Amino acid sequence: MQVAVVTGATGGIGFGCATRLAEMGMAVLATGRNADKLAELARAIGDPDRVATCAVDLTDDDAPGGSPTSW
């Protein structure tokens, strides 16, 4: 299975890209700053085996340390 990493997945373009990639059969690791919108994205994709989310601000130098370590 191919995996796509989508940053900014809580915005319009990122949200659309993440859902479309999942529809195409890819697993999606989606990041964004808003945990509620990431939860909405996960519900929209609907398959927990196809989506993982991480609420993180990638402009913060210390933030990537909080990224997921396993799917």
From TrEMBL:
It comes from the Bacteria. One of its GO terms (molecular function) is oxidoreductase activity. Gene3D superfamilies: NAD(P)-binding Rossmann-like Domain. SUPFAM superfamilies: NAD(P)-binding Rossmann-fold domains. Coiled coil: none annotated. Pfam families: adh_short. Keywords: Oxidoreductase. Belongs to the short-chain dehydrogenases/reductases (SDR) family. PANTHER family: NADP-DEPENDENT 3-HYDROXY ACID DEHYDROGENASE YDFG (PTHR43086:SF3), VERY-LONG-CHAIN 3-OXOOACYL-COA REDUCTASE (PTHR43086). This is Short chain dehydrogenase family protein. It comes from Mycobacterium kansasii.
